[in-house]
Amino acid sequence: MKPRTSEIIDSIADKPLVLATDLDGTFLGGDERSRAGLYSWIENNRKDVGLIFVTGRDPKFVRDLTRSHGVPRPDYVVGDVGTTIAKVGDDHLLSPIPELEAEIEAAWKGSGTRVEMALKDVAGLRLQPTGFRYRVSYDMDPKKFDDRAFDIVAGLGLDAITSADCFFDVLPKDVSKGPSLLRLLSHLSIDNRKCLVAGDTLNDLSMLSLGLPAVAVGNSEEKLLEALAGKDHVHFAKGAGAAGIAEAILAFEFMKTQAA
User: Fold this and answer.
1) How far are the Cα atoms of 81, 161, 167, 253 from residue 138, in angstroms, in the given order?
2) Domain annotation covers residue 132
3) Tell me: the pLDDT tens digits for 51-84?
4) Is residue 72 part of a domain?
5) Can you give the pLDDT at residue 69?
6) How many independent structural domains does the chain possess?
7) Are 203 and 80 within 8 A, CB to CB?
8) Distance of alpha carbon 260 from alpha carbon 244, whole angstroms
9) How far is residue 78's CA from residue 104's CA, in Å, rounded to a whole number?
10) For a disulfide at 94, which of 44, 59, 138, 148, Cβ 3.0-4.6 Å?
């Protein structure tokens, strides 16, 4: 018998810690020993730890990652830089949550083709081949990049964001990792104070700036660190990737057992 929706919500809302983490450079970052230690700790404390991936990666990547690479399966995913909000089943398949994605779809307005046409002659951008539902993404050459791309995107009524100095994403207006994560936490009745957010690049800024307990891991992009300077709710970790997350779990005193 499948659990009712309320039972699913309660199962994560009642946990003392919900880790909402970026993947590349963050949850997947750091040395092998640190990653193995954090992943093992999460699996051994599943009754007390909820897991949300907040990533620029698409659903297929997340599914394949957790099926065959020894990475813990998340409870939920905020993917595609905030344009996908989905629950993850026991089969590792992601099921988008329609009531949370309706606003995203409406804000996007089927803009894929017009974005591609508007940016086709902008220097320093190479369209990524993956077909996304509510975003258009490019590989960016920072040496050749023409920043008039930001004005072009704004003129379309959309938002643009860069990360790691090599990616350029076009998103629906006011949609990114942070706002989408907040909507998911509210939907699941999760107390924001129990959620630790973790990231390492500029496309994580919107969630690390929410005021929730946050960690910028030790290998974070310098531009992210500059944007977060002076924010008391952010732990600036010494450890890279997974080690930085484990460090923050102890620093915020979420759990009594060491996360590594």
Assistant:
1) 13, 11, 6, 39
2) yes
3) 999 999 999 999 999 998 889 999 999 999 999 9
4) yes
5) 87
6) 2
7) no
8) 10
9) 12
10) 59
Rounded to two decimals, what is the model's pTM? 0.91
pLDDT at 10 over 50: no
Q: Six-digit token pair at 70?
A: 């020894």
Contact call for residues 59 and 79 (beta carbons, < 8 A): yes
Which domain-ending residue is among 153, 171, 189?
171
Centre a 10 Å sphere on the Cβ of residue 136 and count the other Cβ atoms it contains.
24
- Segments forming the whole domain that contains residue 74: 5-101+175-251
What Å distances lie between residue 159 and 67, 169, 188, 227, 250, CA to CA? 33, 8, 27, 18, 36
**Structure tokens that stand for 18 in this block:** 């919900």
Q: Is residue 56 part of a domain?
A: yes
Give CB contacts under 8 A, 24+ apart, made by 115-122.
Answer: 115/153, 115/156, 115/158, 115/170, 118/152, 118/153, 118/155, 118/156, 119/149, 119/152, 119/153, 119/170, 122/146, 122/148, 122/149, 122/152
pLDDT digits (tens, 9 = 90+) for 93-147: 999 999 999 999 999 999 999 999 999 999 999 999 888 999 999 999 999 999 9
Among residues 75, 80, 54, the alpha carbon closest in space to that of 8 is found at: 75
Token reading at 239: 């450890």
| pLDDT for residue 89 | 94
List the structure tokens of 144.
């050749």
Q: Is residue 150 part of a domain?
A: yes
